Amino acid sequence: MTGKKLLFIVFLLTVLSAEAQQTTIKRTLKLMGSRFDITVVALDEAEGNKYIDTAVAEISRIEKMISSWDPSSETSAVNKNAGLRPVKVSSELFELIKRAKGISKLTDGAFDISYASMDRIWKFDGSMKTMPSEEMITASVEKVGFENIILNEAEQSVFLKLPGMKIGFGAIGKGYAADKAKALLQQKGVVAGIINASGDMNTWGEQVTGQAWKVAITNPLDKNKAFALLPVNNEAVVTSGDYEKFVEFNGTRYSHIIAPRTGYPATGIISVSVFAPKAELADALATSVFVMGKEVGLNRINQLPEIECIIIDSEGKIFTSDHIEINAYK
Ligand code: ADP
Ligand code: MG
């Protein structure tokens, strides 16, 4: 009896000391023009900071590749040669563009990286006073269309068929960067962490307390108040919301996510959270559901394995995909 008890005490001490050796380090910084919060579990502060430096370097590397602002990026080279010639790119960028085209097909064009070719007729900074005409809206998307992104596998080249056409990674880049940073840290042996790219969350492992990481889904009608706190185990959760960027005409709220086919901003939804194994797909799908609307969006998500979503419509009603249950709290 005493023997057993002693064994138990020794076991408990081992567990406690193993936990005592772990600490959580977090850093907040601006990358890719957005706020990033990087959290890692490490043996001490020095080790944690070294890991965070590794993640930051990886995210900066990706930013250099996909930035449309940086004239020396591979993406800018592709855009500058639109209508002129194919551009040979790194296999990493080639594969990213190929997957993006795949998501366009999956969403019937609701997601489209060539959205960047759109004329910027919508402003979401409060400066817009009248709704653009139907002609202007239709004309604004003339150069948009993922079918005109021509990929040559053998040459590893990308050709944008129409002059003035552009690609942009605004709706997928942060998710991709979060996936890559997570993968690199896991490869370095980091047992647990969170990469949060302005609401594009990617987690692995668990908190030092042994509990799952939790994400707060923001209440879009009151962004300082979370309405649900959900555990996330080794997966990604991405929230796209229009509570910061939208414009209103005649009582209709137009979001900053624009339907690539029509040129009209998405309406009817104010927030979409998507759960998926990878942040890249979650990021792209969150944007897509906005464009597809709640019926089509939910339907599409329900057909995809391992993907779930929570939608909040413009009346504040909550809709969830088939395998998700939330106990909302106020
Ligand atoms: P945010 O990053 O602002 O939370 P998203 O991840 O949904 O939101 O990305 C929105 C951004 O994606 C827009 O600011 C724009 O750059 C780009 N975008 C807008 N509409 C589309 C679309 N239909 N397909 C692909 N990208 C889009
Ligand atoms: Mg997105």
UniProtKB/TrEMBL annotation:
Keyword Flavoprotein: yes
EC id: 2.7.1.180
SUPFAM superfamilies, per the entry: ApbE-like
Enzyme class: transferase
Keywords: FAD, Flavoprotein, Magnesium, Metal-binding, Signal, Transferase
Cofactor: Mg(2+)
Database matches in InterPro entries: ApbE (IPR024932), ApbE-like_sf (IPR003374)
Superkingdom of this protein's organism: Bacteria
Gene Ontology terms, MF aspect: transferase activity
Annotated catalysed reactions: L-threonyl-[protein] + FAD = FMN-L-threonyl-[protein] + AMP + H(+)
Gene3D superfamilies xrefs: ApbE-like domains
Signal sequence interval, chain numbering: 1-20
Family: Belongs to the ApbE family.
The protein, known as: FAD:protein FMN transferase
Species, as recorded: Autumnicola tepida
